[in-house]
Write a structure and sequence with these properties.
Radius of gyration: 23 Å
Number of strands: 0
Strand content: under 5%
Helix content: over 70%
Oligomer: single chain
Mean pLDDT: 83
Structural class: mainly alpha
Protein name: DUF2157 domain-containing protein
Order of helices and strands: HHHHHHHHHHHHHH
Keywords: Membrane, Transmembrane, Transmembrane helix
Shape: globular
Largest sheet: none
Organism: Pseudidiomarina donghaiensis
Amino acid sequence: MYTDDDLSSAVENGVLPAENAQAFREFVQKKRHSTIHDEEHFRLVTGFNDIFVVIAAVLALFALGTLGNTIDDFVGGILVAATAWGLSEYFTLKRRMALPSIVLMFFCLGGVYYAVATGFAAKSAEHGGYFVLAFALTAAVAAAHWYRFKVPITLAAGLATVIGIVISSASLVFDFSDTLIKVLIFISGVVVFAVALWWDSQDRLRQSRHSDVAFWLHLLAAPLLVHPIFVTIADGDFEVSVAQALITLVLYLGLSALSLILDRRALMVSALSYVVYVFGALLTSFGVVNLGAAIIGVVIGFGLLLVSVFWHPLRTMIMRITPASLEQLVPPAR
């Protein structure tokens, strides 16, 4: 299976004329009745060999970690991280296998974090400080991993570790509270969202690796933005009621409109669990206990299917009232 990124690479290396590549893209768009950028393509599995390699790598890395842990937790973590990096030299740089590259990246970063947070923190009473150090070293490895392998998800993982540094550091300095956590998470979401939007603006037609990077960044930003808002609503002084349900619905419609403008579905998906919870609890308060989940599932499920069917007309309508400054950062309307 060939991706649009493969087509772009073929054009850059002189294998395929740009005119032929564009003609092929237009042919696929007409056949699927959808533009390429609307499909939100990202490389994951190109064949069963990807899954085969992932299974083998996971078994080998878990076994190495277990053997290393018999000596010391630090040894186990470093052994996993170093082996994952070494495997990436072949499966990422040479074979360009998407799913194994993602899994190996997580093992590499996870091994570093585990080695420091578990291996060192277990030997010290100052656990918080070592958690900051663990996140910092993991962020440094994430940066090195990005410059070496350019796996699209690595930037999102790296930013997640930076967020870990901020929150862990704040826990050492301030009187930590739920409100502070929510504020930090939301601010982090805004920053990640801005970075994702910048990457999106570099490839509005979504024909290169920039789009893949933006996809994972949006996937990280979405829960960071959504969680503090909906949890605050759920923690309000009032019980789950019609008022709370209406607030949730208005917020979700706003997120849906933003998703249409961005041509990204991550925000809508991230907020789904909160919407299901609020409306399920509302039906329960009215005595609809056994069928509440089924009713909500039918309404939301078919609603999302309708949005998918009419995605292009809805996006065209909302783009007419979108500010020009934002319009220049997102894919053009169909």
